[in-house]
Design goal:
The chain is α/β, with parallel strands linked by helices and 199 residues long. The protein is built from six helices and nine strands, in the order αβαβαββαβαββαββ.
């Protein structure tokens, strides 16, 4: 029997490239984060008692934070039945005296980083769960030069981001070939990033 070798789209589909994916990409880039990803981060990183989850979706990360004793503000642009909806994070202007932890819509990830660092106070943190490939691209060169992450925690094994929060589908075998990391910025930090591993 001849082995299946795939086709021209196989590699791109496997790594989750949005323009080669088999499925239709969610309109608002809602890919919920596996709660375990945040549980693991909270075991190794200290955060302010006040947290803003500004792309809260269905509350997967907010619930972990609340269970750990954090005071959490949960907002989202879209009403998904959790938190405060119709809040466009990128249009907010008020300063936030706390840390921001989220998995932003990937297409707006750079904008989320820049805006979050603009509205938090010196010394506060911004933690974003992103594809490891966020480190790439010339476009983000200036971002990393102006705002270097303090720590990048790379996941040793694969964690899930489920379209529309449907983790059951992923549990039943679709899996992922995408590598994720927690990118931690601290406002005012100007050193060289540290790369660590978790999971």
């Amino acid at each position: 029997m001849k082995d299946w070798t795939g086709n021209s789209k196989t590699a791109y589909t496997t790594i989750g490239a949005s323009n080669h994916s088999c499925g239709v990409r969610e309109d608002n880039d809602f890919y919920a984060t596996e709660p375990k990803a945040l549980e693991l981060l909270l075991d190794i990183e200290i955060f302010d008692p006040f947290i803003w989850e500004c792309a809260c979706g269905k509350g997967h990360l907010s619930e972990v934070l609340k269970h750990r004793g954090y005071i959490v503000r949960s907002t989202d642009l879209i009403n998904r039945g959790y938190g405060e909806s119709d809040v466009d994070f990128l249009s907010t202007t008020s300063k936030f005296n706390g840390d921001i932890i989220t998995n932003p819509p990937y297409r707006y990830a750079q904008e989320f980083v820049e805006h979050a660092l603009d509205i938090v106070c010196d010394g506060n943190k911004v933690a974003l769960f992103l594809k490891l490939t966020f480190l790439e691209s010339k476009k983000r060169g200036n971002l990393f030069k102006k705002h270097p992450p303090k720590v990048i925690y790379v996941s040793r094994s694969r964690l899930q981001c489920a379209k529309n929060g449907d983790f059951l589908t992923y549990k039943n075998g679709t899996g992922t070939a995408i590598a994720y990391a927690w990118f931690i910025w601290e406002k005012g930090f100007r050193g060289e990033p540290i790369v660590r591993w978790f999971n």
